[in-house]
């Protein structure tokens, strides 16, 4: 297959993932709106979010690091050589270790539920008891998340992207129904989200929230068993890998766990700072409103491209193909950076309209919710870094340089902790201040993500050569200008529309118009000043992988051939300068 064909397939896969992800994230956004209305930002909402943090963090990190990052690189070679039995054995071994390990962690989490709830420092004994109950139920989610991640990795390694992208749609539908059912239970008892007391919840309300949320996680993994079976992979629970695979998988997985620890520390810091400086409601607004909105453009624009690229990079690395790996890494890294820049401009532009939507729909803490527009604006630059963290860390996993990836990513999470703490200390010097705390957390998150992105790009250059990051500085400069202009023009559009309209319909119209303007400005400037970033997805890349291309002794994991010298008569190189 030609390079054009490979990248057309890459673009098509990214488009498929993006379309499904749009549906998934819109449902996820609707889920957060239903949560804001039915559960709210009062004591129950804080308890729920506090307890649900740990399994969510485990899933997010495992999906991008410990599990998928370990599975796809070790499975790429056998897939390319047509060794289906080895593929099944690797997938089965990974599933067995994942379910076993996460079940033990879940059991430990359930046993430690009460001491952890005491650490939450939520105030009343009733709130601590509710947190402990939620933690015990949510501990069941851990092996279910593991099932979803391993099955998704098996499908993505085979370039089957629909079901891994669609499964969260099913999960969101289950969770939306759970929140709505909880709201109906409250209404039936004459209560609402802002009047419900933790100690006076209707019978079955807390149980519905806990088990309904857990059922949503099950809905994300169980349906994937069917497409995995249809793909020809036969899963058998066990702990054995083919010879030589276990050590590679263990090394990559342990590297991912290092990233998990770093991110967990940052999440715990966010929880602590929210409680210490922001007071009641700050944690819920940040985790259930600010962060999901922040992640929406990232998931729709950056993740599809990075996800569809990963198995191709892994296949190129498996056959030690620098000529395929480095140009593909470079062009997709620049494209992911553009996606992050467009997302940042869009988010900064629509922030006031999004705050209005949550203020109209949400229950309780209306002043705090209304202040999230500034937090969204401050956290928006982090999208440039977040997309690169997802993509470049996977590019390093493809080279089986997981430790380098984790060190780079950990530097970002450490910066999030320090920058958030410093920002809180400066912006909230006295009494608790929820809006100021949201702003501080936004500043800390953006700073950490950008630091990690810079370090990751430097590490990728060291691991794969200058060709793997060619053109990144020019793209960054163009995005600095384009993103700023797009954000300003888009925000002006939002403010103008909101001044002419009222209520929820006006806010939605303003967000749609301002977001479209911001994104269009960024893309137009990139097209005019850095066109090769966009056209490169069609013009450059690696060759297709077939079994004949990959001999059984193809490559030493984590290595590429020496980088060839640059030739000044190469028009592709000249175009990138």
TrEMBL record:
Membrane-spanning parts: 57-80, 92-113, 133-154, 161-182, 208-230, 251-274, 294-314, 335-362, 368-392, 404-428, 440-460, 472-494, 506-529
Region (Disordered): 552-577
Name assigned to this protein: Membrane protein
Lipid bilayer topology: Multi-pass membrane protein
Keyword terms of this UniProt record: Cell membrane, Cell shape, Membrane, Peptidoglycan synthesis, Transmembrane, Transmembrane helix
Organism this protein belongs to: Cellulomonas hominis
GO biological process: lipid translocation; peptidoglycan biosynthetic process; regulation of cell shape
Main location: membrane
Compositionally biased residues, Basic and acidic residues: 565-577
